[in-house]
Amino acid sequence: MANLSKTFGEREVAPPEREALVRSVFRRVADRYDLMNDLMSFGIHRLWKRSLAWAVDPRPGQLIVDLAGGTGDVARLVMGADRRVVVIDPSVEMMQAGRGSRKSLVDWSAGTAESMPLPDACVDTLTISFGIRNVTDIDTALAEIWRVLKPGGRLLCLEFSTPAAPLRPFYEAYNRHVIPRLGAMVARHPDAYHYLIESIRRFPDQEEMKRLLEAQRFTDVYYRNYSFGIACLHVASRPGNAG
Ligand SMILES: C[S@@+](CC[C@H](N)C(=O)[O-])C[C@H]1O[C@@H](n2cnc3c(N)ncnc32)[C@H](O)[C@@H]1O
User: Fold this and answer.
1) Ligand 1 pocket test: which of 134, 157, 232 has the largest number of ligand atoms within 8 Å of its C-beta?
2) 2-237 topology per CATH
3) Which of 95, 100, 101, 237 would you call most buried, defined as having the most Cβ atoms within 10 angstroms of its Cβ?
4) Closest atom of ligand 1 to CA, residue 90
């Protein structure tokens, strides 16, 4: 896992360079990001996100943060008049593409997983959907998530993971051959989608991700596979009593 922070695609890069390259990926794909997600996953990412939103179980008065929230898919599923929902993302372009000109009940704020513009222990629930594999330093990000969560607060992390063995050859062939072509045709940036695929390939599997969370002192850690493990939702709590 530590290696993820030093790679971009198949290249070894220094962490600051990786950060800049990841930013440039999302800057370039922002206007086609939602369309590409629908095409690449046949719309199934929407079902995964609905399941994530259901697990959030929002309550009146809560502060819910959607970290790496991008165009705000998840934030829109959990927003409501009786709670505050904030998207935090370093890409102004992604947030602009999602915000459009519509008024919504979502607040948008620039920030990274490694450094969020929030005081300690203020967040009831933090979601991160297809964002954690983009962060440059996952341990720092998990420590930062811990910092902003209230005691008893929960992290819900939806991410691509390792599918069941019989599915893997088909999944890898699809990722390797189909997605970069779609990226070229639709998003006009095949290299950006090459990075996305490579970052999925290098990301820890379900059990390793669970161990990373436990190593950062999260408790009650469990996960739920979606679509035979193509995606996975990890749920983890900051210990303490929810106030
Ligand atoms: C694959 S998109 C996911 C967007 C959205 N959450 C979704 O599920 O559709 C990844 C997002 O992570 C953001 N990102 C990249 N590096 C980040 C970092 N260090 N901290 C937080 N977000 C980051 C990108 O700007 C991008 O919006």
Assistant:
1) 134
2) Rossmann fold (3.40.50)
3) 95
4) 25
Exposure of 219 by Cβ count < 10 A (0-12 exposed, 13-18 middle, 19+ buried)? exposed
State the closest ligand 1 atom to the C-alpha of 136, by its place in the atom list counted from 1: 19
Specify the residue with its C-alpha closest to ligand 1, atom 15: 134
Token readout for 182 is 């779609």
> One digit per residue, pLDDT tens: the chain, 243 residues?
444 556 666 677 778 888 888 898 899 889 888 888 999 899 999 999 999 999 999 999 999 999 999 999 999 999 999 999 999 999 999 999 998 766 689 999 999 999 999 999 999 999 999 999 999 899 999 999 999 999 999 999 999 999 999 999 999 999 988 888 888 888 778 778 888 888 888 899 999 999 999 999 999 999 999 999 999 999 999 999 876
Model-wide pTM > 0.85: yes
On the 0-12 / 13-18 / 19+ scale of CB atoms within 10 A, 98 is buried
Give residue ranges with CB within 6 A of ligand 1.
22, 26, 67-70, 73-74, 89-91, 94, 112-114, 129-131, 134-136
- Coil, strand or helix at 223: strand
- Ligand 1 centroid from CA 197, angstroms: 14
User: How many beta carbons lie within 10 A of that of residue 37, not counting itself?
Assistant: 18
